[in-house]
Amino acid sequence: MADVFNREVINMALICLIPFLVAFSFFVFVIYRKRRELLFKQKEMELKQQVADIEMKALRAQMNPHFIFNCMNSIYAYMKNNDIQNAGAYLTKFSNLIRMVLENSLHAEVSLRADIEALELYMQMEQIRMINGFNYRIEIDKALDAENTFVPPLIVQPFVENSIWHGLNGKLTKGTILITIAREGKMLKYIVEDDGIEATVSAKEISPQAIKKKSLGMSLTRERLDVLNKTKNSSAHFIISDIRDGKKSYQGKRVELFLPYEEYS
After folding, report:
1. In a 3-state reduction of DSSP, which class is residue 250?
2. 150: domain CATH number?
3. Fewest Cβ atoms closer than 10 Å to its Cβ: which of 36, 71, 166, 222?
4. 189: pLDDT confidence band, cut at 50, 70 and 90?
5. Residues 60-115: pLDDT tens digits?
6. 144: domain range?
7. pLDDT over 60 (residue 124)
8. Residue 265 lies in a domain
9. Are strands 187-194 and 249-260 parallel, antiparallel or unpaired?
10. Backbone phi, psi, residue 226, to 5°
11. What is the pTM of this model?
12. Is residue 156 within 8 Å of 119, Cβ to Cβ?
């Protein structure tokens, strides 16, 4: 009889405890969920800050004082030589490039068409400033809708800049840069090729400042791609290789840049 009474007391106690256990479990769950949400928001804010910092670094890299100084120097040289027509044309290109870069920097992504327009302006200005100049071609796959395909602004510009100043600038003849853009699966693939001189040869004529700038440009591009991969859960990356005719004859550099393919209608 006592055993039955004890079991009933225990059962009643357990039944009375159930609401408290449920309430306690719910309280713990709410606390845990809030902490997770706060942690997620903190990480999201840190990532947004990282994106903002890198975008500002990218803007400073694209409009670096050295580039602006060289452009002003070129305009001054035209004016000094009374070449008003070329001075005006160069100044127009320069002002258009500044406007485009500043406008594009307001957005995390711009249309491929707008990005190529800014890149072409940059290349046209560098064509004029280089002693022997260079030719360039930009080939976009016809299957791509350049107006509705979106990319980070001037993401490929540092590679083009390297081709110009670390490859073609040391050539005694006019060089060539070929840029091709096409879709490859879920990625947008850029290929930048130049027929510049071999790095081991041209490095003797490259200043320490230029080498440092090249290093910073690559480092910044890696940072931008790392953030892009975090925000879009993608696998953006780039590969740099030598172009060789056979095993020994050096023909230039090739950069393959892979970005997540995004098209909006």
Report:
1. strand
2. 3.30.565.10
3. 36
4. very high
5. 555 556 667 777 778 778 777 878 888 888 888 888 888 888 788 778 889 999 99
6. 63-260
7. yes
8. no
9. antiparallel
10. -60, -45
11. 0.70
12. yes
Residues 238 and 107 grouped into a single domain = yes
Domain check: are 78 and 155 in the same one?
yes
> Given the structure tokens 């360039």, which residue do they identify?
136
Helices then strands, counting H and E runs in the chain, come out as: 7, 7
Angle (CA) 110 177 183, round 5°: 45
Q: What is the mean pLDDT of residues 163-188?
A: 89
Rounded Cα distance between 118 and 151, Å, is 13
CB-CB contact of 119 with 157 (8 Å): yes
Tokens 């000094």 found at: 80
Last residue of a domain, which of 22, 40, 56?
A: 56
Report the SS3 class of residue 158. Answer: helix
What is the residue whose two structure tokens read 């004082």? Answer: 65
Say if CB 66 and CB 84 are below 8 A apart.
no
Q: Tell me if residue 132 falls in helix, strand or coil.
A: coil
